[in-house]
Automatic annotation (TrEMBL):
Belongs to the GST superfamily. Residues 1-87 form the GST N-terminal domain. CDD domains: GST_C_YfcG_like, GST_N_Ure2p_like. This is Glutathione S-transferase-like. PANTHER family: DISULFIDE-BOND OXIDOREDUCTASE YFCG, GLUTATHIONE S-TRANSFERASE-RELATED. It holds the Pfam family GST_C. Keywords: Transferase. GO terms for molecular function: transferase activity. Signal peptide: none annotated.
Length: 235
């Protein structure tokens, strides 16, 4: 059994997508980031960066004590290696998928996240910041669209690279992007959305968070919890 510490964000969806695809038994431990669950000592013990998702695998390969992993990309890589699924053992195909996984972790996620922040949550609209992140998100969409012009998925076969990127493309409207401008990316998005495991993963989101689909941060208290954190929150 795997304990998944989860909330209904793009990074959280990555892991439910994998677990549903692989058929691994898991239980969800909700981490409601709007209520400050990410600062609870039991969560910080496995996720010292006070960010979800995180997992605890009670049956790691080879046995032994339960193993915890934080950071969504590291979790995907761990689960792929554990199951032998969604990451090729071929040297070239494996590295192809890994470079796109790291591309998402280092580029698409952070840039789209800042896009969301300055468009939707910043207390004042700062045109320079909005344009900066909308334009960079647009560039990254273009990179994906070009990559997908001659292949079904980012590394050929469906892999953890696709699971990492997909949840960050789903909210394209909130990122001020017109998905019709990126036909190959749109085809890829629709293909992954239609996978039964994806449908199940997003259904889990609605079960865990009845407000899923609404703005994540709605109150001043939630904004104080999530924005403007300093080193004081990890002491």
């Amino acid at each position: 059994m795997i304990d998944l510490y989860y909330w209904t964000t793009p990074n959280g969806h990555k892991i439910t997508m994998f677990l549903e695809e692989a058929g691994l038994p898991y239980g969800i431990v909700p981490v409601n980031i709007g209520k400050g669950d990410q600062f609870k000592p039991d969560f910080l013990a496995i996720a010292p960066n006070n960010r979800m998702p995180a997992i605890v695998d009670h049956q790691p390969a080879g046995g032994g004590t339960p193993l915890s992993v934080f950071e969504s990309g590291a979790i995907l890589l761990y689960l792929a290696d554990k199951t032998g699924q969604f990451l090729s053992k071929d040297l070239y195909a494996r590295n192809d998928a890994l470079q796109w996984l790291f591309w998402q972790m280092g580029g698409l996620g952070p840039m789209a996240g800042q896009n969301h922040h300055f468009n939707n949550y910043a207390p004042e609209k700062i045109p320079y910041a909005i344009n900066r992140y909308v334009n960079e998100t647009n560039r990254l969409y273009g990179v994906l669209n070009k990559r997908l012009a001659d292949r079904d998925f980012l590394a050929g076969e469906y892999s953890i690279a696709d699971m990492a990127s997909y949840p960050w493309i789903v909210p394209h409207k909130n990122q001020s992007q017109n998905i019709d401008d990126f036909p190959h990316l749109k085809r890829w998005l629709e293909a992954i959305a239609a996978r039964p495991a994806t449908v199940r993963a997003y259904a889990k989101a609605k079960e865990i968070n009845p407000d899923f689909g609404q703005p994540t941060i709605r109150t001043e208290e939630e904004k104080k919890l999530l924005f403007g954190q300093t080193a004081a929150v990890v002491k």
